[in-house]
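Tokens for AP-5 complex subunit sigma-1. Go.
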Amino acid sequence: MAHAFLIHNVRCRPGQEAGPCRVLYSRVFSPERLDEGGCKDAEKERLRRKEQILAVARQAESACRLYHQASGKPPSEHLIQLPDESVSLQDAPSGVFRLPPGDPFCEEKTVLWLAVQSLGFSLVCDPHENPMLAESTLRLLAKELLDHLKLLGAGSDVVLKGDKTEAILGKFLPHGQLRFLNDQFVLSLEREAAASLGK
């Protein structure tokens, strides 16, 4: 089961100036247990979740920066694509890391990340999840979001496309449930997503 999915900025290419990490979109599928409390406690929990998601985005950006430094490639050799081209995620930087209990979640979590130009996609999963299934799900989600929402195009803003992002997540990651998908089922889901997005 996926705990959360987020889209964030990454400034991990060598030569890019470091800036603050921003979470552009996040969805928590299985929030940690909340203590019974009043309205003030609910607000504190919302802020705590927001900080947890930001901590994941920062760590994914750090992992991406380390990936690029360790690759030894000059900046010109890193994956660069034009917005009009079909997105190929085969050579996109990706990785996985574990979050120990208490940092930032109460329980241990596994985070898979994928970077495409200045966008990072991260999937927070339970530690017992199948990592290959989680990686294929993350790559499928990133491809669908990039293709349908044109996130790499000029003037594209992830923040303004939250409803369309939710629709795609609902098709490919319903309620955070990771599923084994064959090619025919993926094509069927892609047609459903295109129809629901009014393509």
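The chain has one domain: 2-196.
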